[in-house]
Amino acid sequence: MLEIAGLSRTFGGLRAVDEVSFGVREGEIVGLIGPNGAGKTTLFNLVTGFQVPTAGRVRFRGADITRWSPDRVTAAGIARTFQNIRLFREMPAVENVVVGRHIRTAATLADAVFATPRYRAEERDTRARARDLLGLVGLADRAAVPARSLAYGDQRRLEIARALATEPRLLLLDEPAAGMNTTETQALMTLIRRLRDEHGLTVLLIEHDMKLVMGVCDRIVVLNFGRKIAEGAPDEVRRDPGVIEAYLGTQTERLRDVRTASPGAAVLSVDNLSAGYAAGDVLHDVSLEVGAGQIVTLIGANGAGKTTLLRTISGLVRPRSGTIRLRGVTVDGARPDRIVGLGVAHVPEGRQVLARMTVLDNLRAGAFARRGGAVEQDLAALLARFPELGDRRTQIAGTLSGGEQQMLAIARGLMARPRLLMLDEPSLGLAPRIVERIFGIIREVNGEGTPILLVEQNAQLALETADQGYVLETGRIVRHDRADRLLGDEAVRRAYLG
Amino acid sequence: MNAVTDLYAAYSTLVLFAGVAALLALSIYVTLMAGQLSLGNAALATIGGYTAAILTKTYHAALWPALLAGAALATVVAAVIGIPCLRLRGIYLAIATLAFGEVVRVAALNLTITGGALGLVGIAPLASFPHVYGALAAAAFFFYRLERSRTGRAFAAIREDEAAAQAMGIRVMTYKVLAFSIAGFLAGLAGGLAVHFTYLINPTQASFGEAVTILTYAIFDGTGSFAGPILGGMALTVLPEALRFLKEYRLLLDGAILVLVTTYLPNGVLDPLLRWRRRA
Q1: Among A186, A228, B47, B194, which has the minimal tally of Cβ within 10 Å of its Cβ?
Q2: What is the ipTM, given to two decimal places?
Q3: Using 50, 70 and 90 to split pLDDT, how confident is the model at B44?
Q4: HSE of B274 in the Cβ direction (CA atoms, 13 Å)?
Q5: Tens digits of per-residue pLDDT, A200-237?
Q6: Contact B149/A107, CB-based, under 8 Å?
Q7: Which residues of B touch A48 (CB under 8 A)?
Q8: Chain A contacts of B138, Cβ < 8 Å?
């Protein structure tokens, strides 16, 4: 039904999708998995026309649909949902589904103005079908609620109903279970099976929840660094050494210097923290400690709540209960600027450098909250430490490579002379050689006395680097031990691959 | 009864201006419905005004054919300008349409057929209450139906999320150009009506100031319906007249009202009223 052949897309020098080929047969449910930044969503965008491939072809039911515009792809019978939910937020739920009927309705503006019989019949039919689809995904009683006011899981289901309204033959789901609780995920699995069995749909889905992927998919395709590294039945894929390595990271060559430094006084203590967003708690009863001079790593699969924990410590998310203390000072519920003032530097996921400013201006921005002089001296020292940045000091940050942007983000964090450095996924989407360099920097910075809280998907690397490790699974700490003891631990593998 | 006719006689021009302002407000509202900010409406109205005026003055055409010709030309111009401009987003689209306004103003200033800087004067007094308010009623009905149609929903979808609209199979560019064309028609019609009760037209009517005035009519939006801009256009035409006693301080108060509204009622003047009604 869907035939992808040699599909590639490069961004600058990065091969986001690199000569990927696979097919989806009519009536199949196929999973597309891989670590963050593997190119899964880009592949969806290439198939649906939101991005143009640099090479390769996409065929759908015999037609070559490469480079078709998104609206033509939808008309041909492919519907999709979005990873970061793109509903028509101000519209009621039912109107979202009604808009989905656009391509299957034909009444013109003149029909509507003169209220012709065709327009009236079509409107009635459209409303009836929209209500049916809401019923199918379990939102019948939420029809009049604006999309933005729906709970997170309901929004995901509404996106599916809206996609179904276009009467697709092939449904592409981008992380449909993200943000759903266990019960909701169960219901979603049942729904996906029903769509195939009762409605004759073919499904291709991206998902990080391995219970769902393994439970519902007939076949799985695995991507890593834009390349297809495995394809097969769920059980084969789960045991594939290449796949395990892609998720957990490789053992590095260099012998690890076993860290013996005993922790000093606690720099950060988190006790029984629960926090989350309007839709519900993401973190449940989390306790964690970072001692002076330590590197502590927090590992776990996508969606486990790692980023939310860092954001809560930074004051960007308000805790619902529990306490956060920085060197004994209680800071939970304090404003982000106060927490920065207390010496916490947060290097966010996806770097978030100030893309239109120069390297130098980015670094100066990092010293914004600092009082006193010596900023320029620190700047010079950092540029000497990061020669890549020194050479590019007047370059616009948005034009740096991914690795350089990550170095800049870390350097910007260091400009604040932090007393606690928090790093969120510093290796995300970077080539192995650059990841080595970044982790070298992390050890160096720590060697100079800065305690570090490291959130990382590459569990192997993180545990080799850290003193202590915490494993987070669906918002709870399931394991805490010395980092070297967690290496090769079964709980870690389970947290990632189910 | 006499009192009413006397009152209308005294304020007839103001009443007509209010109707024209409501049409212009609808013209900017239709592009906002599709999420596009255009500042070219004053220039489109000027095109409609000149066209209709030339037709009735030089060629002695009847009012309605002249009005429709003006509106048609403004529609075509809007569509032709829209196709390249609508590839731009947000503030860049606003700047491009503003530049288009300048082109129209300078063209009107230099062409012979438009009468140069003086413009056209002595245009026949053909437009009166039934013309202006008939057109407004028809436009209001059109919007009432548009908002409940497949086309209206496509506009709203584009405003809310262009990528998602595309994923629903909506041809985004086609609908943006359609919204622009409807805006052109309404503006052209409004311009044509206005010149036939003001009896004159000159290039300043395509100026930046006029463009911004039309934009402010949208402050009554937030109703999520066409009633908002109609009220906005009318109120902002009548209010300055009612405040005439303030003399030179009037503009100051105008400005203050706008600043207060945008600061405290970001969803439009009618927003608190609507929320109160929804709760009740």
Answers
A1: A186
A2: 0.84
A3: very high
A4: 14
A5: 999 999 988 888 899 999 999 999 888 999 999 998 98
A6: yes
A7: 167
A8: none
